Queue: 4 jobs
Job 1
Amino acid sequence: MLSTKTRIAESFYGSFIDGHMVDEGTNRTFDSINPANGEVITSIQAGGKSEVDDAVASAKAAFPAWRDLPGVEKGRIFLKIAEKIKENTERLVYLESLDNGKTRMDAQFDVMTSARYFEYYAGLADKLAGETIPLGDTHISYTRSEPFGVTAHIVPWNAAFQQAARGVAPALLAGNTAVVKPAEDTSITTIELARIAVEAGLPAGVFNVVTGLGRDAGAALVSHPDVGRVTFTGSVPTGQEIMRASAENLNPLTLELGGKSPNIIFEDAKLEDAIRGAFFAININAGQVCAAGSRLLVHSSVHDQVVDKLVEMNSQIKLGPGTDAASQMGAITTAAQFEKIQEYLEIGRNEGAEVAVGGSRATGENLDAGRFIQPTIFVNVQNSMRIAQEEIFGPVLSVIRFDTEEEAVQIANDTRYGLTAGVWTQNLGRAHRMAARIQAGQVNVNDYFAGGVQAPFGGFKQSGYGREKGVHAVSEYLQTKTVSMKL
């Protein structure tokens, strides 16, 4: 067990600018709250325009040297960052569980995935190249891939550590420098990541973090004239605001804006695998996952069997503080999200859906002081209901019957979102047909969360645009220059 001093590495967390964290002298702070018990974890600096200006200036100053550093050297630094993340796994897992409310298993996955991002992009660091274009014997033409300069990253609260790494690693690999604005509810581990990176040899100013509220620090960052590119993960309304702010500087964007993803179980599926996959797809991180399989489409012939088993599995989930190793589902991270989920539980009942299990706030034992929601399954759901159309972002599953493949496709696509989908079938032809016809950035067959750090990730429709992860993410942070010359 870690000591109290190690558990909470700092009593104050400030913005991380030019290789160091600002001191505790600021009088503009807010508290970081443990969602499992409502207690104050630490104090966070409420940065604003001044801190953003400093961070962007630091990133801009560091850019030329970092851009010109050979790729092989960037890769070596990335590998050292990955190793240092793994060396600090226990502390980082505890801090992420404490700050976010997620279980130690979920936090462990996030920390190890963050290390994997740096390992993966280290392998690409010396392999970026342009192309030659044939123009005949009299001319030669070729392309150069060049970084934008300073990139801005607005990181969500549901997976702060992992998503900071997911955006920063490919941006830095491409030769950019970065300024990250973490969510105010979960700032701690993003600062820890920046500090680890510098300790591993990343030059000061290449990776900066500004803590603060979105309306202050976030707004100042995305509209800053020296920012060349913006990446945001979060809600559709906030994404639209960021688009408007970025339009002033004509900044390109990567937007990942959530989903209402269909998870489709056909009558010929291996039901044991499909049920386990559906359970995992909605309950991971207490449902606070943009790609969660929150709409479960089940063929009528196996509907009751699937629902009965999921109800049994949900009723056995042990809720508790994320820092408790026995906990299988943690708390809801933010107070606003906690209230929103409870509102949707009431909306579902009022719409005529039936609660098969769960359906309310979880209480008792060590849960009363925290933000815990019973894992919930709604049945008799129509796809037109709000609980089937709107992103709840919690452990709330809407089960919808279907009878034909065509009906499944129609229901799956009848949403403004298009992030992820799951298909469970042993029919290879059907699997390919569904993958082609479903409007989503990712379609997983017989395994819901199948993509690793190598697989591009992003949305269709109002789930956003641009791609993160994999080689595709690097291209988001590069701009193409064509050079042509007469011989």
Job 2
Amino acid sequence: MRAAVHTAANEPLRIEELTDPRPRAGEVAIDVTSCGACHSDLHVLKGELPFPTPGVLGHEVAGLISEVGPEVTGLSVGDRVVTSFIMPCGRCAQCASGNEEICLDFFAYNRAKGRLYDDDTRLYRPGGEPVWMYSMGGLAERAVTPTTSVYRVPDGVELADVASVGCSTMTAYGALRHAADVRVGDTVAVVAAGGVGSALIQLAAVFGAAEIIAVDISDEKLDGARKLGATSTVNSAEVDAAAAVREITGGRGVDVAFEALGGEKTFDIARDSVVEGGQIVVVGIAPSGTTGTLDLGTIARRKLQVKGSYGAKPRRDMPVLLDLVARGLLRPQDSISRRYGFDQVQEAYDALDRGEIQGRAVITMG
């Protein structure tokens, strides 16, 4: 099969022929039809997040099951599926406690070493050299993943539209539902209207937020945010964004501010935009070593809550999200602004790095 291989920091992805990966116990192989281009991949490509090389990135996968491994039930060859970027092991202490979004084995084996839970990869060059997997290694024609990350796409839903549900949408849902517990009538700010930010805006509208304020430095992205459900927008390159958020809310500030980029400046805006007792939820994955500042006295005096959110609980929440898509309440396709062929994969990440992608870019394998 063909795969886009990451060989070194700041080097272009290289299309290579790898041996076809085969599923082992509790796993399936998926013929990939599309894969979203996520900012987390870009951090790895730029050396901002540590990951072994050579490796195959890509963790927003939609496709058809082409092979099932031993001990797999409930899934069949030919099923149309989408994957979650978190692949719960189902057996560690966090999974057993219902916190599978911070699965210990996922971080220890996959994110640290690029392997699945038998401490091995499924990807190899023709000469036998191992190639490491970022999640399921979806920037390839075929991917293998545990069944804990695989979900059938409902009838009537276009497979080409749902790849991003397993990462940007699932990440947004976890932040809104589990970290912040946004309720009908709440006011929210979304700082950085990229892929995850776009999903936060869409889902905040579904959750019934009364005010959804999108903050970004790009007027083009802010125009897109309005189409996705933002009630107000603020260009932080032109005005004091936190002051503008407070003005929009009558001097009060928002109940919840989501930081959706992983940057010091965006964290500052989120921190300064919330009402007394409000929540600052950090969702964006920052390059290693990125810091944000907090005045401890201000936290105590204003009773601020600072929370982190890595994602949703895949086995509980992915069916909920796909049901919302099937009912037309959530439209991930509306946040897809560009589609690239597989041979254009590097172009997709270059555009993402330049800040040109509104919402999500998707790479198609056909």
Job 3
Amino acid sequence: MPCIKLEPLGITINVSAKDKLWRSLKHAKVELAATCQGQGICGTCALRVFDGASSLSPMENLEQATLKNVRRDIALYRLTCQTSVLEDGVVFYLDNKADKKLAQIFERLKNRLAPRDIHHPITSELLVQEGNLITQEILERLLSDF
């Protein structure tokens, strides 16, 4: 399962190579707008690719046209609803409000003591016991698939 890095959060999450990136991000609780519901025509799910563009699925004509229509540089952006991650090493930059809120939550929690036991919301695995330090690794595990 490939991993991607999301900046400015500084987190790494696992994504499915079988699914489009938008679906994997949604599963990891990273909500991106997609006005067209993943049909590739609105451009609202576009993310800037900082590194590793060669590890993404090839860009199809629809994606190219949509990025041009919304005035995005097709060399720098990809539509998450049309793109799959094939290998590790891709770094994306998140710049929407939901991700800024997630970044604020991470900063408030990181390197603090857990006020109670924290379990993974899907697997119920204990990630950190009450009174122990909440690390970057623990926060990343909250977003990653197992």
Job 4
Amino acid sequence: MVTEVVIEKNESDELPLPRLWRPIFTEIVSAIVKKDYLLTCVTRFNVFISQESADQISDYIEDYGETIVDLPEDTWDSSTFLWMGDRWNVLIDLWTDKEGHSDLVLKAEVKEGSSGYLVVVEMVYVL
């Protein structure tokens, strides 16, 4: 039985990423795996990344020295979101070909808009 994770505006608890958002982040990480750091191939969703953030992600992954891989289902066991008053902060655990679950996370914000959710990809870093 699959448990639905509800999108909550909870400011006190980090919660598991809602199923509704998982395809968005799967596609974002898939673009990063392909070294498409500006996310030009992410066309099904409302996603924004600045050139500065794209450069930071590219540099950080290169410096980390491992190859990022597409997200396995296990990533949803530890990826979280938290309401911040006007947006959700999202942390997606990244995986590499040698380490599996790595120390790297993708940080993004999700905002509500008139045409659905807007995902703003901010950075990748070691948690």
